[in-house]
Structures are given as C-alpha cells and as structure tokens.
Design a protein that fits this description.
Layout (H helix, E strand, L loop, with lengths): L2 H16 L3 H5 L13 H14 L18 H20 L1
Helix pairs in contact: 1-4, 3-4
C-alpha cells in the first residue's frame, strides 16, 4: 500500500472505532504533519489491531517515537515500516 492508502485504511478503522462517518472523522484537529491528530491510546489500538492480522505485534511500542503515535500519518508510516519486516519473518 502507498502512504495515502495506508492513511485511508487507518481513517476507516477510526470510523468503525468511533462510529462516525468519514466527514466527521476528517473534521477533527490536524496534526503538524497535516494528517488527523489522534491520541496515543487510539494509535496503540490501531497498531495492535493491524498486528493481530499477522498473529504477532507489529512493533515494540516502547521503541517507537512518541511522535509516531500522535497522528494518522505517523501511525500509517509506522505500520508501513513494520509490515515488510513482518512479511520477512513470516517467510522464514
């Protein structure tokens, strides 16, 4: 997935979590990176939910920069970086 596609997927997960439509989600506050600002607990939920698809955690959250957990863009980038590593582990 491209970065915008991953961001879209994260937004769709937030729609389900918050039970809001895309317009309401998109009207939230923007982070400095230009994407939707989210709280760290929501970011952890997104990362762990995606990790369940791989049957293992995607990343060790204690090693993640806090800034990565503050926006849709940061979370999407974190997931995109972690997935190739997970695919390589799964192929071994």
């Amino acid at each position: 997935m491209t970065e915008p596609e991953m961001q879209q997927q994260v937004l769709e997960m937030l729609m389900c979590l918050r039970r809001q439509n895309m317009q309401d989600i998109a009207n939230g506050p923007a982070h400095a990176d230009g994407t939707l600002e989210i709280d760290s607990m929501t970011a952890v939920w997104v990362v762990s939910t995606v990790g369940r698809a791989f049957d293992r955690p995607l990343v060790r959250l204690s090693n993640v920069r806090r800034e990565s957990l503050r926006s849709v863009g940061g979370v999407a980038a974190l997931i995109r970086q972690a997935i190739p590593a997970q695919l390589m582990i799964g192929a071994a």
